[in-house]
Specification:
Elements: H1 4-18, E1 29-30, E2 39-41, H2 43-51, H3 55-64, E3 76-78, E4 82-85, H4 89-99, E5 115-119, H5 133-149, E6 153-157, H6 166-177, H7 180-185, H8 187-202, H9 206-220, H10 224-248, H11 262-274, E7 279-281, E8 284-287, E9 300-303, H12 311-326, E10 330-334, H13 340-352, E11 358-362, E12 367-368, H14 385-403, H15 409-429, E13 437-438, H16 441-444, H17 452-469, H18 483-493, H19 495-501, H20 509-528, H21 536-559
Parallel strand pairs: 5-6, 5-10, 10-11, 12-13
Antiparallel strand pairs: 1-2, 2-4, 3-4, 7-8, 8-9
Length: about 575
């Protein structure tokens, strides 16, 4: 069904035209201060600047042609010329009755579905995933959930780093120092040990350095033994990655690593040169994007002077493969902000090659420690993602035990997983993606404030109402008789406005903030409006509002990849 914004916007547009103003797109937004209304429009102020008139007079002229009597109390002019709307309880009641029967919570699928490839997470083989992978992994998964829910066809691709010079060292270490028991126990830790052992030996033993380089060349030339070792490294690493993805509830449709495109690198360089897109500069094959001022003096190197290829070469080959296989309308790369120049360059080159898809770099900031520096261990290494998730669950387990010590152990363990992992995900998704944020256990696991445990607890509180009532769902009509009921009813209807807006600038924090506001509106309602002690008709109405709130919280948190437990 159409949203409140869409309904009011359509009425406003008619009034603007009827008032004699043409070629103007009137828009309505949620009110910044609900004391003055539920929705507002600044059309009069924008038109006043354009027409050089008094904004309040323009607003009055628009209102004279504005018919919203079935939706809103008479529109009011406020401040410098804002037009404010206050939704009628009767109108909200009808719409909320419809929401009770709608599994999509009022969200209408997109009218223009697209095929979208989302490239995210991308860990490196033979290296552990670390805290830096949190943002790409969780943000990418959330965007894929939301895009699918809105009706887009989504292909998620984990473009793993499974090729490179480090494999010469790893293979040499595998042949000479491998501890198979350690490999079986913790594959990535053993691969890291092999790499570090050889790396240290190379500093003082040129023979080791030479042999490691030879092992790399043999791998690149297709030596059967080295290829077999390399494949074992990839599969061992992926098995460890998969454990973390399973824990986080994340799946991928594809996991083609850099190695998958090796055979395409030479041909794409030849084609770029033949088409005059690339040229030799100081022995390297480069693309100068002279038509893009910001990139004109920053050549993209496609092939080094020694014949070696780079990430740019692989990424171009990957784009071509994706275009041929899936024919996507868009490809989204969820990668940190420091890679902005890289993506500007490869997107520019891809368009020169004829790629028509919408290529987007969804950048994000950094996770900081309490010292407001990039989060590291005391020894200066990256904090392991597995360590973070284990710690989150452990801390949540302690909180759950304190809050509800009588829960059975298996139930307590399940809740600890949902609360701990939800806290980590929400700490990420509640931030604007470009914000550098401080990783704080105390803040993210708090049952107060804008956190996952606070929202999960709101859901649990509602479910406990139904357990006490002995009813699975509410029956009867919704009546919004108090200001708190009315405010909750308006907020519930705004879910359908919030979810589609997330993809406009890839901002899951809009949904997180909405859910926080919804939980606050529910708590205000719950404190002011008795539910189970109310008379029958009012009780049924308030149970219906509770049900809608719980369903919306669970649905919204689900889009964020967070599970709502039934108890806490």
């Amino acid at each position: 069904m159409p949203t409140l914004r869409e309904i009011l916007g359509a009425r406003l547009a008619k009034a603007v035209e009827a008032a004699g103003f043409t070629d103007f797109q009137a828009e309505v937004s949620q009110a910044a201060d609900t004391r003055y209304g539920d929705y507002q429009a600044n059309a009069a102020m924008a038109l006043a600047r354009k027409e050089r008139k008094n904004p309040r007079e323009v607003a009055a002229a628009i209102i004279a042609h504005l018919d919203v009597s079935d939706i809103s109390a008479p529109a009011e002019v406020a401040g410098a010329g804002f037009i404010n709307f206050r939704i009628l309880p009767e109108f909200s009641q009808q719409r909320l009755q419809e929401l009770l029967k709608d599994d999509a919570m009022g969200v209408t699928p997109t009218s223009s579905p697209k095929t979208i490839i989302i490239d995210y997470s991308s860990p490196n083989v033979a290296k552990p995933m670390h805290v830096g992978h949190i943002r790409s992994t969780i943000l990418g998964d959330c965007l894929s959930r939301i895009a699918r829910f809105l009706g887009h066809k989504v292909i998620t691709d984990n473009h793993i780093g499974d090729w490179g010079t480090q494999f010469g060292k790893v293979i040499y270490g595998w042949k000479n120092f491998l501890d198979r028991d350690a490999l079986a126990k913790d594959a990535i830790a053993e691969l890291v040990r092999l790499y570090r052992t050889v790396n240290e030996l190379e500093k003082t033993d040129e023979a080791v350095a030479r042999q490691a380089r030879e092992e790399l060349v043999k791998l690149q030339q297709g030596d059967a033994e080295n290829l077999a070792i390399w494949k074992d490294c990839v599969e061992c690493s992926w098995a460890e990655f998969q454990k973390l993805y399973d824990l986080l509830g994340i799946r991928f449709d594809e996991r083609l690593g850099e190695s998958s495109y090796n055979d395409a690198l030479g041909p794409i360089c030849e084609r770029l040169q033949q088409q005059g897109i690339a040229e030799i500069s100081d022995g390297a094959l480069c693309v100068f994007l002279r038509d893009i001022p910001a990139l004109a003096e920053k050549p993209a190197i496609i092939r080094k002077a020694d014949g070696g290829f780079l990430y740019a070469t692989t990424d171009l080959a990957t784009i071509e493969y994706r275009m041929e296989r899936w024919h996507p309308d868009a490809i989204w790369y969820v990668v940190g902000a420091p890679q902005a120049l890289h993506f500007q360059q490869i997107f520019g080159i891809a368009h020169l090659l004829g790629v028509k898809a919408d290529l987007q770099h969804i950048a994000f900031g950094s996770i900081l420690g309490e010292d407001r520096k990039i989060m590291k261990t005391r020894s200066g290494e990256n904090v392991g993602l597995a360590d973070v998730l284990t710690e989150a669950i452990s801390r949540a387990r302690t909180l759950v035990a304190e809050k509800n010590p009588d829960l059975p152990e298996d139930e307590r363990e399940s809740i600890a997983h949902h609360v701990g992992l939800g806290a980590v995900k929400y700490a990420e998704l509640s931030q604007h993606r470009m914000t550098d944020y401080v990783f704080s256990w105390d803040k993210m696991l708090s049952f107060q404030g804008n956190t996952a445990p606070y929202l999960q607890n709101a859901y649990v509180r509602i479910r406990s109402i139904f357990r006490k009532a002995g009813e699975a769902a509410a029956q009867g009509d919704i009546v919004l008789g108090t200001p708190e009921e009315r405010a909750l009813g308006i907020k519930l209807q705004q879910y359908a406005e919030t979810v589609p807006a997330i993809l406009d600038d890839f901002r899951p924090n809009l949904l997180a903030n909405y859910l926080y506001e919804l939980a606050n509106a529910f708590h205000s309602f719950y404190e002011a409006c008795p539910v189970l002690k109310a008379e029958d008709a009012v009780r049924q109405s308030r149970l219906a509002l509770c049900d809608l709130t719980a369903r919306t919280l669970a649905h919204g948190l689900g889009l964020l990849g967070i599970v709502c437990p039934e108890k806490m």
